[in-house]
Amino acid sequence: MRRPYCQKKSGLAIALGSILALGLFSLPSFASNFNSNLRQGLPGRRISGGSRSIGTACIAHPEQPIIALMPESNLGLTISARPTFWFAMPEVHQSKNIEFGIFNQNEELIYQKTFQPSGEAGITHFSLPETEAALAIDQEYRWYLTVICDPSSRAEDLVVTGWVRRITPESALVESLAEATQQEQVALYQDAELWHETITQLADLYRNIDPDSTASQTGTVEQQWNALLEAVNLPQVTETPFSNQSNLGLAVTLPASSHASRPE
Questions:
Q1: Helix axis angle, 12-22 relative to 171-179, nearest 10°?
Q2: Backbone phi, then psi, for 202, in 5-degree steps?
Q3: C-alpha 171: how far from its chain's center?
Q4: In this model, does residue 264 exceed pLDDT 80?
Q5: Per-residue pLDDT tens digits for 135-157
Q6: What pLDDT, in 10s, does the model give residues 86-131?
Q7: Backbone phi, then psi, for 144, in 5-degree steps?
Q8: Residue 222 burial class via C-beta count within 10 angstroms: exposed 0-12, middle 13-18, buried 19 and up
Q9: How far apart are CA 246 and CA 32, in angstroms?
Q10: Burial state string for 21-44 with b = 16 or more CB within 10 A and e = fewer than 16
């Protein structure tokens, strides 16, 4: 199995010091980091195809796919034991089910959960619950998210799939993060090529913009969000709003499937 990027040897504390000295947060150059992993890309699918049968249509607007918010390499690095995954979801009929699962490097299904759709389109996320075992360090895990259009024919599923790898953070990063603001943390995570932390922190900033913020502050966060998506070649998501029910885990949880799905 190919081994992806290990954490960079960079002067993170120096970088943070420069940010603080300037007294401002400049827009990170996302493209220079996350796209550097392209040479180590893994097989995956960031954008779902369409259901082959009109009779099993399961989304309100068939032209709108599921989009996994991931780098083009299909690999996301994280320092979290239970990372958060982000998706741009179409309006899924509430009579259908959404399934999320993770396989370890031995292709063993280690986690699977089924959700009832909220019936709302928008950007949503899912975090592995604290009750689940932590991801092992320096191992690749394959995850998938699928809309089950026809339970009797899983070939009709709408599927996105990718990979996650947990790494050990450098001590300089840990020290810098402890002193950083939320916006400064985005730059630190981005510099360390930590995809899951970068997008989660930036999404939290974007979703929770203080209504009393100045137009320039609000605009900067929006620019950062758009720049991140454009850097990984997902500009079509920049106009997608966040779902009011933004966490898949808030949906009604159904029993897991009795057999392991293996989306490709």
A1: 20
A2: -70, -40
A3: 25
A4: no
A5: 999 999 999 999 999 898 888 89
A6: 999 999 999 999 999 999 999 999 999 999 888 889 999 999 999 9
A7: -145, 150
A8: middle
A9: 29
A10: eeeebeebebeebbeebeeeebeb
